Amino acid sequence: MSTPGKAYGPALERAAGHARAWLDSVPDRPVPPRVDGDGITASLDHPLPDHPTAAEQVVDELAAAVEPGLMASPSGRFFGWVMGGTQPAPLAADWLISAWDQNTAMRVATPGTAVVEEVAGRWLLDLLGLPASADVGFVTGGTMASFTGLAAARQQVLTDVGWDLDRAGLSGAPRVRVLVGAERHDSVDLCLRYLGLGAPTVVPADRQGRVVVGGLDDALAADEGPAIVCLQAGNLHSGAFDPMAAAIEVAHRHGAWVHVDGAFGLWAAASPRLRELVEGYESADSWATDAHKTLNVPYDCGIAVVAHPAALRTAMGVHADYLAGFQGAGDPFEKVPEMSRRARGVTVWAALRALGRDGVAQLVDGLVANARALARGVSGIDGAHVVNDVLFTQVCVTFGTDARTRRITERVLADGVTWMSGSRWQGRDVLRMSVSSWSTDAEDVAASVESVRRAAAGT
Ligand SMILES: *Cc1c(COP(=O)(O)O)cnc(C)c1O
Question: Does the keyword section mention Ligase (predicted)?
Fold first, then answer.
């Protein structure tokens, strides 16, 4: 045997040791990296070695070189961008996925992991209240999940007007109008570029960033032909949700396909207390979400859900002789852009198996409770003003002037107790907090509020 199983042991044991040392250090360490990219380059960027090195030495070197440049994003005091932590069961499952090394493209080739993903998909549809007949694809993230949903949308709306996209391509095709709210996530525009659909038609949004339904109706009525409406569940700044039921009713009345970008917000549907935020969203045509945000599985894991499997499989399936007999059977490769890929959906199974229905609801409710506690704490600081309605996991704060807000943001980051992103929202600078980690607790919230208070003192 050229690679006996025993050959892996020493390197895996070192990796487990380094992983545990890192995870053990997270609760108490400062959140920001100690060394910036240039510092890591200085210690790591050697010329390509000429000769082999033992695997365990490689692992040790890697851990030592990288550790100072790690952001403690799994920390309960990390509130940057929208980045979740990772829970124990999905992390351990992710290690197994790598060890198994199953190319989860076809059920016949890798039945073990393919079926775990099928089960995870069914559980998700149940948990999120989406149609049981929908297709679920496991992709790298929210962007590729939206790409997948919008590719199915493009396929369907062009087929509906008699255009053969697969044969004729987009050149000379009827124009597909894509309507989005003014505060959609930038990744939607990126997906439209990938798909050759150009810039979207932008519909006004309200003070919380929600699309204005009357404006959507007017924009749809202003023209005809194939149309796609992209709604948002969870605004990056406010956490707000587009009014799903009303917007979908209007869009469907005009014959449009409705896609929902719910990268972190779709998980509101898993909580009986929060479900009203997405009410009516189940009548959309496709949905995109991330498991690596709110569900707290390791990177990378996004989920595309499409209510019309035929459209998805036409858009994503491949028609190759060597795959003959597998097409149309609902194999994983027919639901995602990739052919070969890791069994990333297994992490979703592990998270759902560990949490159960109640556990997911408690996870999401807990994030929202902590966001509200942060908002309450910070709004007690001199000059601070929480500018969004904190209905979900996001909090945006201003401190009088833009200059003061920016100064306080810099001082918070330099302090290192907590990590929050600065941003601009609706014409002003904000300090932005996203509560996305299962590990945040009341102590983390209190320590983070105190850090902001110190940063604000004397500014
Ligand atoms: C994060 C995010 C995305 C993109 O997801 P990735 O996983 O980074 O590709 C899209 N939409 C919203 C609302 C997001 O928060």
Answer: no
End of a domain among 333, 351, 369?
Answer: 351
Between vectors from CA 222 to CA 219 and to CA 227, what angle results, nearest 5°?
Answer: 65
Within this chain, do residues 369 and 231 fall inside the same structural domain, yes or no? no
Task: Write the CATH number for 422.
Answer: 3.90.1150.10
Compute CA distances 311 → 156, 285, 319, whole Å: 6, 10, 15
- Establish if 83 belongs to a structural domain: no
Assess whether 211 and 343 both reside in one domain. Answer: yes
Q: Which residue's CA lies nearest to atom 3 of ligand 1?
A: 142
Residue of 83, 140, 185 best suited for mutating to test ligand 1, as the one with most atoms within 8 Å of CB:
185
pLDDT score for 289? 98
Cα(166) to centroid(ligand 1), Å: 28
- Per the CB < 8 A criterion, the answer to whether 304 and 148 are in contact is yes
Residue nearest to atom 14 of ligand 1 (CA): 263
Dihedral (Cα; 100, 105, 110, 114), 10-degree rounding: 90
Q: Is the pLDDT of residue 3 over 80?
A: no
Question: Which residue in this structure is represented by tokens 């509560």?
Answer: 435
Range of the domain at 363: 358-457
Domain boundary pick from 315, 335, 351: 351
How far apart are the CA of 298 and the centre of ligand 1, in A?
15
**Cβ proximity of 154 and 316 under 8 Å:** no
Task: Say if ligand 1 is within 6 A of residue 262 CB.
Answer: no
**Cα gap 380→453, rounded to integer Å:** 9
Atom in ligand 1 nearest the alpha carbon of residue 184: 13
Is the pTM value of this prediction over 0.85? Answer: yes
Segment 163-181, tens digit of pLDDT = 999 999 999 999 999 999 9
How far apart (Å, rounded) are the C-alpha atoms in residues 340 and 106?
9
Query: Domain check: are 381 and 296 in the same one?
Result: no
